[in-house]
Design goal:
The complex is a heterodimer.
Chain A: H1 5-13, H2 24-27, H3 30-33, H4 40-43, H5 54-75, H6 78-81, H7 86-98, H8 100-116, H9 120-144, H10 156-159, H11 166-181, H12 184-214, H13 217-233, H14 236-247, H15 249-278, H16 288-307, H17 315-321, H18 325-334, H19 349-358, H20 363-380, E1 415-419, E2 422-426, H21 429-437, H22 439-442, H23 448-453, H24 461-468, H25 486-489
Antiparallel strand pairs in A: 1-2
Chain B: E1 2-9, E2 16-21, H1 26-36, E3 47-51, E4 54-55, E5 71-77
Parallel strand pairs in B: 1-5
Antiparallel strand pairs in B: 1-2, 3-4, 3-5
Classes of the chains: A mainly alpha, B mainly beta.
Chain lengths: 490, 81
């Protein structure tokens, strides 16, 4: 008799047996499987709401691959990308660099879960998740790295994580810990529950809509294709968190708090830049803050309530940072644009009016920075990049490794802390708290400033970005218009 | 001897690393910081320098002010609290 589909799934996914010749702790040691260590009975109820067989997985993925490659054949050539606004190309370069190798690290993390996660259904879902992530590594590499023959900056699609560029250091600091070092429990909380369910699953929906609006069919199709995979393997998260909450609620809350903040900072840089500065004004549907409020905050708050957890204690700080953080990093990055691999733009009068309308709580304090930048461009005239570029090294947070852009222009929230004879600086109170909860994990990491002071990196900015960050003159970021904006000439 | 300091200029968007000499005056360090931030913040004619919540004497040297490596200093407009 042929089994009904749901009966077949239960037969095929619950495959653990009781070990008689080895101990359960030997098969799943706590160091590899994660804390708290619980007997399998505690995990036996692990359940994924959306189930798939290997055969269904392969068939579905084959169709998705065919669709992406058909679009690439049609509109994925360099001449198709050359038609886009240069700002949008910068948004592409930013995502192209940060995405693919992080996805490969996620492949490794999922393979670890496929071996050491505590229930067979969890391990099976993680195994398909690993295949998803390998696909997400190769899709952007094949679609975007190929553009290097037209634009050298696309070389960073592959090179980014191999470099000591400050953004790459910050990204590796997160990805190494979350995807390569974390046990399956922390991986499920950090990646599936917080990052994918909280941020990227919906980000890919919003980003693909933006790509559609600017006419970038290649990126739109790729993101949609990736998002459907994310939605499936993200379901690992809630069911792991529920078991964790039942047995060690404090640890569950601590992990959620830590990873939401860590992801928020990097997400704000990548997606905040793209939505509020690098998407041409005519194609912006909403501000980054509106996107966060509509797609991330409500949904994340509901997810927490569903599993019996509370909003992080730093929530008011986080809500305030929605008005400030990515704006402060963008203005800082613009005036240090040669330290990154993509070009940046000065927001013109129309854009600044839009930003003022979208960010009434903060724009009055941010606008003078852009007024000053515009003033410097007027003084120098077009083409004189270094007149609107910083020349002094900047400070980096000892936890997130990003520039010290916390708080507001009037009151930066950076904090200097002495600990065990060493001095650390944090961009914010949450970064300090996360560091102090696990100092053994972070204390040895040397940010760019510490590397300079140790003689491991040059203090001279040009030397730093050439020899340490690995940028060449034809790759490093410039103003998208070389300072030659029509509104500046008026 | 050079003393690396984290400097924050009011109105700026990020912290800057400044290498001060231990015999350099606080006024000179403030000027150095304002120059480093000038692409984002128009330099002010009159400023105060704060460290650990206290106002530093602009004529005092870095070492006499008790500043040590990787301390934080803030350059604010003279009229600001």
């Amino acid at each position: 008799m042929k089994l009904a589909r749901d009966d077949w799934f239960d037969l095929a996914r619950k495959l653990d047996w009781t070990y008689g010749y080895v101990g359960e702790r030997d098969v799943f040691p706590e160091e590899a499987s994660g804390a708290p260590w619980l007997p399998h009975d505690a995990w036996a109820g692990w359940n994924e709401p959306f189930r798939t067989t290997y055969a269904e997985y392969v068939a579905t993925q084959a169709q998705k691959e065919a669709a992406v490659h058909a679009v690439r054949e049609a509109v994925g050539r360099p001449e198709d990308f050359q038609r886009h606004d240069r700002r949008w190309l910068s948004a592409l370069k930013l995502h192209a660099a940060t995405l693919p190798l992080a996805e490969f690290a996620a492949t490794i993390g999922n393979l670890r879960a496929a071996r050491f996660a505590r229930d067979s259904a969890w391990r099976g879902t993680a195994l398909l998740g690993a295949l998803d992530e390998l696909r997400h590594t190769q899709l952007p590499l094949v679609a975007l790295h190929d553009l290097v023959k037209w634009d050298r900056q696309f070389d960073w699609t592959h090179r980014f994580y191999h470099s000591n560029d400050w953004v790459a250091i910050a990204a590796r600091h997160v990805m190494d810990e979350m995807l390569l070092a974390a046990d399956p429990i922390e991986l499920a909380v950090a990646t599936n529950f917080v990052f994918e369910t909280g941020f990227t699953n919906l980000q890919f929906v919003g980003l693909s809509a933006m790509a559609h609006d600017v006419g970038d069919r290649m990126f739109e199709t790729m993101l949609k294709s990736i998002q459907t995979d994310e939605a499936r393997h993200a379901q690992i998260g809630p069911t792991v968190v529920r078991t964790l909450v039942a047995h060690d609620r404090a640890r569950a809350q601590r992990l959620v708090d830590k990873w939401f903040w860590r992801h928020w900072l990097l997400f704000a840089v990548v997606t905040g830049f793209a939505m509020d500065y690098l998407t041409p004004l005519a194609h912006r549907r909403s501000s980054f803050k509106e996107f966060m409020q509509e797609w991330v905050l409500d949904q994340f708050a509901r997810s927490l309530a569903d599993v019996g957890l509370e909003l992080p204690a730093y929530w008011p700080t986080f809500l305030e940072s929605l008005d400030w953080y990515h704006h402060m990093v963008y203005a800082s990055a613009y005036t240090y644009r040669a330290t990154v691999w993509f070009d940046l733009a000065v927001p013109g009068p129309d854009e600044r009016a839009w930003l003022r309308a979208k960010y009434p709580a903060s724009w009055d304090a941010l606008d003078p920075v852009w007024e000053r930048v515009a003033e410097r461009w007027r003084e120098s005239g077009p083409g004189v990049e270094w007149y609107t570029h910083g020349t002094t090294p900047v400070g980096f947070c000892s936890l997130c490794q990003l520039v010290l852009c916390g708080g507001t222009p009037a009151r930066n929230t950076a904090q200097v802390v002495d600990r065990d004879g060493r001095r650390y600086i944090f961009c914010s109170e949450p970064c300090r708290t996360i560091f102090e909860a696990e100092p053994e994990r972070y204390a040895e990491h040397r940010d760019v400033v510490k590397q300079i002071l140790a003689g491991e990196a040059p203090a001279n900015l040009l030397e730093l970005l050439r020899t340490h960050f690995g940028l060449t003159q034809d790759e490093w970021g410039k103003d998208v218009a070389g300072g030659d904006y029509p509104w500046l000439r008026r | 001897m050079l003393v690396p300091l984290y400097g924050f200029v009011a109105g700026d968007t990020l912290g800057i690393l400044v290498l001060a000499r231990d015999d350099e005056t606080i006024a000179s360090v403030a000027a150095q910081l304002q120059r480093a931030a000038t692409v984002r913040v128009r330099p002010r004619a009159r400023v105060r320098v704060l460290a650990r919540g206290a106002v530093l004497d602009p004529a005092a040297t870095v070492s006499a002010s008790g500043l040590t490596a990787l301390d934080r200093i803030d350059v604010v407009a003279a009229e600001e609290p």
